[in-house]
Amino acid sequence: MTARPAPKFSWFVPIDGDGDRIGSLRAQREPTFEYLRDVVLNAERLGFHSLLIPTRFANGSFEHSAPLAETWTTATALCAVSSRIRLLIAVRPGITPVGLFAQQAATLHQISGGRIDINIVPGGIQGDNERLGIGGSHADRYAQADEFIDSCAQLWDSGGPLDFEGSSVRLSGAIVAPTPTPPAPAWYLGGASEAALQLAAARADVLLCWIQPPVPMQELIGRARDAYANVGRTPALGLRTHLVVRDTEQEAWDAASELLSEAHPEVLAQRSAAVKSTAMVGAAAQARRVEDDRLGERLWNGISRVRVNLGTAIVGTPEQAADELTAYWRMGFDEFILSAYPHLEEAERIAHDVLPLVSAGALQPEEV
Predict the structure, then answer these.
(1) Are 211 and 314 a contacting pair, CB within 8 Å?
(2) Would you tell me the crossing angle of helices 318-331 and 214-230 to the nearest 10 degrees?
(3) What does each C-alpha distance from 62 to 19, 296, 332 come to in angstroms?
């Protein structure tokens, strides 16, 4: 039996703003470059593997017109001030023409010393693409993402000239110079729908999943492995989760409650509307309402009341959080993309108090 790789731990760039309260009209800490730079450099110092920079066109944790740092501009600036940590940049296919994107990403890969990866986001937040005047159904966007990745990968591999004739991507003599120094940026793709799993099986280097309770999580992994097996591949799995960690269990649950203590009715209404009738299977699962927002003994999805997309957290002591993460590692997840509020201070707590316990637990033989 092949030995499992040691788990990788990554962190998150809060482009919506930050603080120990979310869901208010404005963030306690606005997403200025100075603050985001501090989050990045702190995560780099603490030894995190990578940083996820999300993409959206309206604020997703506070009132939707609150200040928001634009993804690609922010990533470019952060590459220039960091030196080791990788940047996983979320991208919506169809926003930037693929020929231009391939050159932009190759250039940033070179500037960063080969430290960028790409998280393709075909589904997006309901109504978000429409803010920019871009339409298309859920199915259309997955078909477009397939061609986007395929044509971009071909350009990075060959440099062109490339002719590509698809239903949504058409290139005539496209060129990228210089091409990315190998290895080229890895492709991450998230999702729980059949369209997402089929696309990931065909194109993704890493399937990124939002945390769910163990049973639906194992079902999703099974579906993913079947999809990959159909094309002769084995999935690499990443898990995205929030953490609320304190010295005692009661303190952790109190902190979870405090996180939403200043939630504004306008923000609650905006987030509810964003998932109503959504075609995104993962988003609907994150926003499922249960008593006290408790999905399990340690899982809490209260964050989904005020935040788009991932809304579930592991809540508990460092030991309890580590036990949960170790259990997901044993399910097959190799990389954990973590976040906690506020991201600057909580990175210290998680790096010092939780992650060493997960690494140690991964070395222990599994009980049978």
Answers:
(1) yes
(2) 30
(3) 11, 26, 34
**Residue 339, both tokens:** 């976040």
Tell which residue, 188, 72, 54, has the closest CA to residue 125: 54
**pTM for the full predicted model:** 0.93
Please list, in sequence order, all residues whose beta carbon lies within 8 angstroms of the beta carbon of residue 265, skipping any fewer than 6 positions away.
none
Percent of the chain scored above 70 by pLDDT? 90
d(CA 267, CA 96): 29
206 torsion bin: left (phi>0), alpha (psi -120 to 50), beta (else): beta
Calpha distance 127→273 (Å, rounded): 10
How much of the chain exceeds pLDDT 90, in percent? 82
Q: What single DSSP character describes residue 61?
A: S
Rounded Cα–Cα distance for residues 98 and 144 (Å):
10
24: number of CA atoms within 13 Å, CB side? 15
Length of the chain in residues, anyone? 368
Q: What is the DSSP letter of 185?
A: P
Of the candidates 103, 106, 99, 119, the residue with the CA atom closest to the CA atom of residue 240: 119
Q: Are 185 and 178 in contact (CB under 8 A)?
A: no
Give the integer Cα–Cα distance in Å for 293 and 257.
10
